[in-house]
Structure formats: C-alpha cells, structure tokens
C-alpha cells in the first residue's frame, strides 16, 4: 500500500511539472491549443495527490495513558535487576569495611587471664589465642604459663585481629593479640611456655610460631627447662624414737628424754639430768633421788 501511494504522489508531482511547463509555453504563445489539455492534466494531478494522500497511513500520536503504562511496565520489569545490583553494592561495601577493620584491628582491655592461651577481653568475651597451645589446668607448668601471660597483658589494652575462622567449637573468639606492635601469640612460644598449634584456615603466623617453639626448645626456655618432668618426691622423715617409761612414771634407770616439772609433780625418781638441774640436789647428775 505504501508503494502505491508513493507512485501516485510521484505521478502527481510529474503532472504538476507538466502543467507548469505548459502554462509557461502558452503564455509565450507557443501552444494556443494546450489549454484544454492543461486542464485535464491538472485534474489528473489533483486526483493523484488526493489518492496518494488517502493511501498514506497517518501516524497517530500515542495516547498519554498508554505511554505511561508502558513506562511503568518497563520499570517493574527492571526492578529485580536494579535491586540485585544494589544488594551486590551493599555486600561489596560491607566486605571492604570488614577487610579494612581486619587489617587495622580493634582494641580492648584484658579483664582476666584464664590460662596461658585464653583470656577475657572487654567487648569480645572469652578469647583463645591463635596458633599456640599452653599447659592445661592440672598439667605441669600450668601456673607458670598462666603467670607469664598475666604479667604480659593482664589488665592492659591490646589490639586484636581476627583471621578467617572467627570462633572455635566452644564459642571462643579466635584472635591474634598485639601489644606495642608485638604479637603475643608468638611471644608465648618464644618464651617457651607454649607449643605451636596450627588449625586451618587460621595459619597467618603459623610458620613464625613453629620456628619460635623450635628455638625455645633448643635453648631450654620456659617449660622446656625441665618443668615437664615429674618432680622428685620429698623424702619422708623418719619418726622420732618413743620415750621410755621415764616420761610416764616408775624408776628412771635408762631414760630417753628428761621429764619436766618438779619431783612431786612428775612422780618419777632417780633419772639423769644435765648439770645444774635444780632437781639434782647433791650434784651427782641424778634428780629426784629416793
């Protein structure tokens, strides 16, 4: 249909050109008989223009409500994709913030030292130091390892950092602790109070702690100085010999200890005494003579 309309319009344009040419020629007197033909061509031209215009489809303006409905439908179709993109951006922002916090670390005060590798940390709760293991309660060197950590960080502000796994099966926070830039986990192994204990995936300082333990063993530091050995039992003192009957009465002939008290009080006679004893009246070394 559009092709036919275009041909008719072209024909109309051609007829219009012909009419103009004939009019010009007629006015110059060169074609006195052209007037009737000119009318015919003009009518045909107008008819072609009319038919061509009728056959050309007119573009109707889109109704405003229809356009709004289309835009709303497109917006709703894009909504899930936009929400997913916004959620990804939020997750990425949280990840970056957490990464910066882990790299920088946070601070808290040690409120209690439980043993050589476990503390209570203000704002965190119970904390198990990563990568090192010290004697448990009832084991040799437990008190010494606990006292070492107490003297090192008890009551102090420390900087702490998490690694990949944040808690153990006992719900204790797994942390690296720092004081003045020194890693306390490593310091315990260097002092000889702890063994290296690597539990994946928390292995950031594992190699350094292993090396520190090897060095402490070689130099007999801390628990490697011998407190792992069972202490030798103290010798049991022999019981003192029992006194003879001199302490309870009768003649004192071969007594052990010297009875105390006056002769009338003790009821014992004829027992040896050291020189100067007032009960030896005649100075012969025998008291309370009968």
Describe this structure in words.
With 290 residues, the chain is α+β, with helices and mostly antiparallel strands. The protein has three domains: 2-55; 106-225, OB fold (Dihydrolipoamide Acetyltransferase, E2P) (Beta Barrel), CATH 2.40.50; 246-290, no CATH class. It has helices at 2-27, 34-55, 64-104, 142-153, 184-190, 206-218, 263-266; strands spanning 106-115, 118-121, 125-129, 132-133, 157-167, 173-179, 182-183, 195-196, 250-251, 268-269, 271-272, 286-287. The longest helix is centred in the first third of the chain and has 41 residues, at 64-104. It is rod-shaped, with a radius of gyration of 58 Å.
Topology summary:
Layout: H1 2-27, H2 34-55, H3 64-104, E1 106-115, E2 118-121, E3 125-129, E4 132-133, H4 142-153, E5 157-167, E6 173-179, E7 182-183, H5 184-190, E8 195-196, H6 206-218, E9 250-251, H7 263-266, E10 268-269, E11 271-272, E12 286-287
In the CATH scheme, what's the topology name of the largest domain? OB fold (Dihydrolipoamide Acetyltransferase, E2P)
User: H/E element string?
Assistant: HHHEEEEHEEEHEHEHEEE
Classify the beta-strand content into a percent band. 15-25%
Q: What's the architecture of the largest domain in CATH terms?
A: Beta Barrel
Task: Report the CATH C-level class of the largest domain.
Answer: Mainly Beta
- Strand order, main sheet: write it out: 1-2-3-6-5
Give me the number of helical elements.
7
- Tell me the domain tally: 3
Query: Low-confidence spans: pLDDT under 50, at least 5 residues?
Result: 244-255
Major beta-sheet overview:
5 strands, mixed, barrel
Radius of gyration: 58 Å
């Amino acid at each position: 249909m559009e092709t036919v309309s275009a041909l008719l319009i072209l024909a109309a344009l051609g007829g219009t050109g012909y009419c103009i040419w004939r009019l010009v020629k007629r006015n110059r007197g060169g074609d006195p008989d052209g007037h009737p033909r000119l009318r015919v061509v003009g009518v045909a031209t107008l008819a072609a223009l009319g038919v061509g215009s009728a056959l050309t489809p007119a573009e109707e303006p889109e109704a405003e409500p229809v356009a709004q409905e289309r835009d709303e439908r497109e917006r709703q179709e894009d909504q899930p994709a936009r929400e997913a993109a916004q959620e990804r951006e939020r997750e990425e922002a949280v990840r970056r913030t957490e990464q910066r916090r882990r790299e920088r670390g946070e601070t808290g005060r040690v409120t209690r030292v439980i043993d050589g590798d476990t503390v209570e940390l203000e704002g965190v709760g119970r904390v198990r130091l990563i990568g090192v293991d010290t004697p448990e309660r009832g084991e040799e060197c437990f008190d010494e390892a606990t006292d070492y950590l107490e003297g090192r960080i008890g009551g102090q502000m420390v900087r702490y950092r998490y690694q990949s796994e944040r808690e153990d099966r006992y719900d204790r926070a797994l942390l690296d602790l720092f004081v003045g830039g020194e890693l306390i986990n490593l310091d315990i192994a260097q002092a000889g109070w702890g063994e290296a204990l690597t539990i994946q995936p928390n292995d950031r300082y594992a190699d350094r702690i292993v090396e520190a333990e090897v060095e402490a063993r070689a130099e007999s530091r801390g628990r490697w100085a011998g407190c792992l050995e069972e202490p030798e039992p103290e010798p049991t003192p022999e019981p003192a010999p029992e006194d003879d009957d001199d302490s309870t009465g009768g003649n004192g002939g071969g007594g052990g200890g010297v009875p105390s008290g006056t002769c009338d009080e003790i009821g014992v006679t004829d027992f040896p005494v050291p020189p100067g004893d007032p009960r030896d009246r005649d100075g012969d070394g025998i008291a309370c003579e009968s």
